[in-house]
Amino acid sequence: MIMLGHIETLMISDVCAEGAYLDGKDLGEVFLPANELEEHLEAGDSVQVFIYQDSQGHPTATTKTPIAQVGEFALLRVKELSTVGAFMDIGIDKDVLAPFNEQKPKMREGYSYLVKLYLDNASKRICASSNLNKFVNKTEPSYEKFQEVDLIVAAKTDIGYKVIINEQHFGVVFFNTVFKRMFVGQKLKGYIKVVRDDGKIDVVLDKPGMGKVVSLGDQIIQALKENGGYLPLGDKSDPEQIKKAFSTSKANFKKAIGGLFKQGKISIEAKSISLKE
Questions:
Q1: How many angstroms from the chain centroid is the CA of residue 260?
Q2: Helix, strand, coil % (nearest 5) of the chain?
Q3: Per the omega criterion (within 30 degrees of 0), is the bond before 208 cis?
Q4: Long-range Cβ contacts of 31-40 (<8 Å, 24+ apart)
Q5: SS (H, E, C) 7-20
Q6: Sheet of strand 230-231: strand arrangement
Q7: Model confidence pLDDT, tens digit, residues 89-114
Q8: How far is residue 53's CA from residue 209's CA, in Å, rounded to a whole number?
Q9: pLDDT for position 274
Q10: Gap between the Cα atoms of 61 and 58, Å rounded
Q11: Is there a single domain that holds both residue 113 and residue 166?
C-alpha cells in the first residue's frame, strides 16, 4: 500500500514539461516536479520518492530524502512560528507543522525539538508532535536483562538521560554510567539493566560483564598501534584522562589493561602502557 509521508518506489505514468505523473495506486496520480526528474527517465521507469501533500492537498513527490518519515522520531528545527503552530524543517521543500496543542514544551523559532511525525486524520498532512507521552509507554515492557536495544535520547534530567527504548518505552541512563557525550535526538545502542516493578526501566550503554572489557581491550590495542606502541595512561592515571581517551571508567580501563597484561600483550607502568614486541 502506498502511503503519504513515506519513501516509496513508484512507476512513471506520464512525462510532461512540468514534470512527471507517478502511479500512486490508491493515492491516485502523484506529481513529481520537472526539477526533480532525471533527464533519462521516461514513462514505465520507476523512481524512489518521498510522498507528501502540497498546499492544495494534492499528492506530491520529491526525490530528496527527508530527515524522517511518518511514524519516526527525529530532532527537527523550528523554521517559523505562525498562528497555527510551528513549521519545522524535515529536509525537503515542504515544512511540517507542529500544531500548538502538540507542543510540549511550547516551541521557539530557531530551536530544535525531538518530535514524532504523524499523519493528521482530517487533512492527511504530515505533522509533528513533541508530546512524546502520546506515543510511548503504551504497552507493558517485556525486556530481558542485558537485552540489546535501540535508544533515542529524549531529554536530560536531574538524574540522567531520559531515553526512548525501541521507540516504545521510556527509560533512564543514569549519569554515573555515562562515559561519552550524549545529546537530545542522538540514536545509539544500549542494554536493559532492570525493569522495575513500577514499570520504570534502567538502561546502560556499555555491554555488561566481560564483553565490555574484551571490546575495550581491542580498542586499547588499536590505540597503542596507532601511537607507536605507547600510551600515557596507566593504573594511576587521572580518571578524566581515561574517560576522554576511551569513553569509559577507570575501573573498566584497569580491568581491560589487566587482561591484556595477563595475555602478555602489554607492559604497564603507573601512568603509561606499551605494547610488548
A1: 34
A2: 20, 40, 45
A3: no
A4: 31/58, 31/59, 31/60, 31/61, 32/60, 32/61, 32/62, 32/63, 33/60, 33/62, 36/61, 36/62, 36/63, 36/64, 37/63
A5: EEEEEEEEEECCEE
A6: 230-231, 272-275, 266-269
A7: 999 999 999 999 999 999 999 999 99
A8: 50
A9: 94
A10: 10
A11: no
Q: Has residue 52 been placed in a domain?
A: yes
Which is nearest to 49 in space by CA: 89, 8, 21, 20?
Answer: 8
CA distances from 217 to 191, 204, 221, 276 (A): 20, 19, 6, 14
Measured CA to CA, the distance from residue 182 to residue 185 in angstroms comes to 9
Distance CA 66, CA 69 (A): 7
Residue 143 covered by a domain: no
Given the C-alpha cell 520507476, which residue does it identify? Answer: 46
- Is the whole-model pTM more than 0.85? no
| Helix H or strand E encompassing 152 | strand 148-156
- CATH assignment at residue 118: 2.40.50.140
pLDDT digits 0-9 by tens, 175-224? 988 878 899 999 999 999 999 988 899 999 987 765 665 578 888 998 99
Using alpha carbons only, give the angle 202, 207, 213 rounded to the nearest 5 degrees.
140
Asked if residue 214 and residue 200 are part of one domain, the reply reads no
Domain-ending residue, one of 204, 227, 244: 204
How many structural domains is the chain composed of? 4
CA-closest candidate to residue 76, choices 31, 129, 112, 118: 112
Looking at the DSSP assignment, which residues form a beta bridge with residue 54? none
DSSP state of 36: G
How far is residue 173's CA from residue 201's CA, in Å, rounded to a whole number? 9
